Amino acid sequence: MAGAGGGGCPAGGNDLQWCFSQVKGAIDEDVAEADIISTVEFNYSGDLLATGDKGGRVVIFQREQENKGRPHSRGEYNVYSTFQSHEPEFDYLKSLEIEEKINKIRWLPQQNAAHFLLSTNDKTIKLWKISERDKRAEGYNLKDEDGRLRDPFRITALRVPILKPMDLMVEASPRRIFANAHTYHINSISVNSDHETYLSADDLRINLWHLEITDRSFNIVDIKPVNMEELTEVITAAEFHPHQCNVFVYSSSKGTIRLCDMRSSALCDRHAKFFEEPEDPSSRSFFSEIISSISDVKFSHSGRYMMTRDYLSVKVWDLNMESRPVETHQVHEYLRSKLCSLYENDCIFDKFECCWSGSDSAIMTGSYNNFFRMFDRNTRRDVTLEASRENSKPRASLKPRKVCTGGKRKKDEISVDSLDFNKKILHTAWHPAENIIAVAATNNLYIFQDKLN
Amino acid sequence: MMLSKGLKRKREEEREKEALAVDSWWLDPSLPAVAQAPPAVASSSLLDLSVLKLHHSLRQSEPDLRHLVLVVNTLRRIQASMAPEPTLPPVPSPPAAPCVADNLLASSDAALSASMASLLEDLSHIEGLSQAPQPLVDEGPPGRPTGGSPPNLGALDLLGPATGCLLDDELEGLFEDIDTSMYDSELWAPASEGLKPGPEDGPGKEEALELDEAELDYLLDVLVGTQALERPPGPGR
């Protein structure tokens, strides 16, 4: 099992060296709240990279075609489309403001020239169509080039309009709005492998939707107790299995994962499998439950494993073994002795995400001080890297970072007490096929690639 | 830090850069260092912090349910470690604590608010235990329906004959579900100020007690009323 801290060895199979590629976002020290990135997601091909922010905007980057003239650089990601997905809303019935922050974006598999994605805030999910327009018609019979209508009686000849090229325009339009199905805050959405349905999960319920139908959804999980006094656990994340369209999992604030099969019953309150690691009595504390709360769950691409992220570690589970994970990777074990301070400043409630590499051989998750961690499952090596403007020369290699936990601090090490807990990397994404990663550091998006030999 | 209802926390205010001190300030000094064994009993500072967090969470216009549940569960653990005696009153039924809930919450989920309020009531007894000799703050309104009678009615009985007071049967019903075991506790100093809030412990304490003054005034009025019926000054008056 991989240990804590950075071993100084590159991770990602075959001794990868990670290099800076690009950074997007403002350089200002003063961060506007609305610009804080709240979700990052590659599409199925990896050619598009979407980000959502607290201001309700979605920015999509597209990878440019590889330039034969510059063989050593991979295609860069440039802005493709920007649109306002969600606006702040006011719920008049409850006198509550509904935040426009985008909690999750999930792409649909591409079926035609247009791209589709689902974006959600706390209450409403929207299906967006992003399409290109690079031609326009000219030579209409009934109207001028200006658009003014022509007098039909003055038309003496007919012509066939012709398509002429125009500057590429990328349009985003909302095709479906799935609203009013969630009383509590939506934390997850997941597209089914059938490409027709998807699930949305809030703190207490999970709903199943058909992409074409917005006025109805099926409730498939409901953990709301009859008596709210008995509420002790909430749903924290949910995901569909990548291949089995009847299987999904959801995680809880108590560190458990339930796998459900929709074929067994309409309401999946009874799980098919229950994953929980027994608590280690020697490390029990008042904060045990909080740090066991799972903040993200992701199936491997193969569908054989799933990964969960809790406050201090990432665990890989074999779907066939419910009693304990097959791998546990410590993300920042040096924080265990600081839990009380982290409880005081609420950092202990931060929700970190995690992701698999395309081949499932490596996993990645974020930490504080703009550090992020990678674990190679084959070589068992791990590395800590930093997303910072200082290391942002093109193709500059990232130097492994190390946190000093006590005793004499070596050169280049950083001590635990010097970590900046405002700089948290909660959202990361890995290209589905290549070693390209996107890391969201507050309001900046970093893109790193492996070094091309 | 008081935030008005519905105001979102500002990042800059909440998350100031701070170096993390080693976590020892919250430990009971008599217990061994935390590195190896977590303390069996939490200090009152941790309790205060958790209560503050609960209050703060409940004051949000729409509480983050996960945060709330985790804080409440942590509070329960702390409570369990600090007060293992079984004489604690059970959590009163929801209709018994509407006033506190109203004061604290804007949530439309009344049952949730009531449950949190009842937990807070529970904790108010613990606060009295952990910070002796703090006077008991009974957060509940006095005029509760008698439906919620706790099993420790025995304590109330003790109060009657033991102190020689003559309680009118009707009025006894009013006090049925107030836990009077505090009055019998050794930590209770009879000379203290009774039901008025005790010396301020700091802004946190102030915050927690401020809301109870309305209830306390009402309770006082009722007690003053019954005093006229020849009830000798009870504990704390």
UniProtKB/TrEMBL annotation, chain A:
<dbReference type="InterPro" id="IPR018067">
    <property type="entry name" value="PP2A_PR55_CS"/>
</dbReference>
<dbReference type="GO" id="GO:0051983">
    <property type="term" value="P:regulation of chromosome segregation"/>
</dbReference>
<dbReference type="GO" id="GO:0000159">
    <property type="term" value="C:protein phosphatase type 2A complex"/>
</dbReference>
<keyword id="KW-0853">WD repeat</keyword>
<dbReference type="InterPro" id="IPR015943">
    <property type="entry name" value="WD40/YVTN_repeat-like_dom_sf"/>
</dbReference>
<dbReference type="InterPro" id="IPR000009">
    <property type="entry name" value="PP2A_PR55"/>
</dbReference>
<dbReference type="GO" id="GO:0140767">
    <property type="term" value="F:enzyme-substrate adaptor activity"/>
</dbReference>
<dbReference type="InterPro" id="IPR001680">
    <property type="entry name" value="WD40_rpt"/>
</dbReference>
<protein>
    <recommendedName>
        <fullName>Serine/threonine-protein phosphatase 2A 55 kDa regulatory subunit B</fullName>
    </recommendedName>
</protein>
<comment type="similarity">
    <text>Belongs to the phosphatase 2A regulatory subunit B family.</text>
</comment>
<keyword id="KW-0677">Repeat</keyword>
<dbReference type="GO" id="GO:0019888">
    <property type="term" value="F:protein phosphatase regulator activity"/>
</dbReference>
<dbReference type="InterPro" id="IPR036322">
    <property type="entry name" value="WD40_repeat_dom_sf"/>
</dbReference>
<dbReference type="GO" id="GO:0005829">
    <property type="term" value="C:cytosol"/>
</dbReference>
Automatic annotation (TrEMBL), chain B:
<dbReference type="GO" id="GO:0005634">
    <property type="term" value="C:nucleus"/>
</dbReference>
<protein>
    <submittedName>
        <fullName>SERTA domain containing 1</fullName>
    </submittedName>
</protein>
<dbReference type="GO" id="GO:0045944">
    <property type="term" value="P:positive regulation of transcription by RNA polymerase II"/>
</dbReference>
<dbReference type="GO" id="GO:0030308">
    <property type="term" value="P:negative regulation of cell growth"/>
</dbReference>
<dbReference type="Pfam" id="PF06031">
    <property type="entry name" value="SERTA"/>
</dbReference>
<dbReference type="InterPro" id="IPR009263">
    <property type="entry name" value="SERTA_dom"/>
</dbReference>
<dbReference type="GO" id="GO:0016528">
    <property type="term" value="C:sarcoplasm"/>
</dbReference>
<feature type="region of interest" description="Disordered">
    <location>
        <begin position="132"/>
        <end position="151"/>
    </location>
</feature>
<feature type="domain" description="SERTA">
    <location>
        <begin position="39"/>
        <end position="86"/>
    </location>
</feature>
<dbReference type="GO" id="GO:0005737">
    <property type="term" value="C:cytoplasm"/>
</dbReference>
<dbReference type="GO" id="GO:0003713">
    <property type="term" value="F:transcription coactivator activity"/>
</dbReference>
<dbReference type="InterPro" id="IPR052262">
    <property type="entry name" value="E2F-SERTA_domain_protein"/>
</dbReference>
